[in-house]
Design a protein that fits this description.
single chain, mainly alpha, 170 residues
Length: 170
């Protein structure tokens, strides 16, 4: 993973776990966060595949959570102080949308992981093949109806990234 993506991954993971919190106690929260972090990491690596892409994203900034907050009814209505909201500026809408797509479809997640250049078997197991405790802990995070509005924002772009168009043959 590119070090420049760490703040983006952390903020986008935080956004997802706040928008779609774990169901259960501390263990469920940890399982939910692990799944969200795996999905966000895969999405970020697909979105910013080279160190140069990651550096440019860090330089320009990812855009923030404004539109996502409106779509997901996160309860964020400016109640926090500006210092409490600083992390929201590091949320990447496209990465959050792609992560939502991956969380909603283990098959799509497996395809996305296969498309990564890094080959570390099992590192994304909770994303690709969640067990019953993973599913139970992240029932909101993986619920297709709840994820739908966020996933649909950039689903087509993810499809293009995973399955580039074939060149026209004349």
């Amino acid at each position: 993973m590119h070090a420049d993506l760490s703040p983006l991954i952390a903020a986008t993971t935080t956004w997802l776990t706040r928008a779609y919190p774990a169901v259960g106690g501390a263990m469920a929260s940890a399982l939910c966060e692990a799944q969200a972090r795996q999905a966000v990491t895969v999405a970020a690596l697909l979105r910013y595949p080279t160190p140069m892409d990651a550096s440019l994203a860090a330089l320009a900034g990812p855009g923030g959570s404004g539109r996502l907050d409106g779509l997901s009814d996160t309860g964020h209505a400016g109640a926090d102080t500006p210092q409490d909201d600083a992390w929201r500026s590091w949320v990447d809408e496209v990465v959050a949308s792609w992560a939502a797509c991956l969380l909603g479809s283990p098959e799509l997640a497996a395809e996305a992981v296969a498309g990564l250049e890094e080959d570390v078997p099992g590192v994304y197991r909770r994303l690709v093949s969640p067990d019953e405790s993973d599913r139970r802990a992240a029932s909101l995070l993986r619920h297709p109806d709840l994820l739908g509005p966020v996933a649909e924002l950039h689903r087509e772009l993810l499809g293009t990234r995973l399955r580039p168009a074939l060149p026209d043959v004349a």
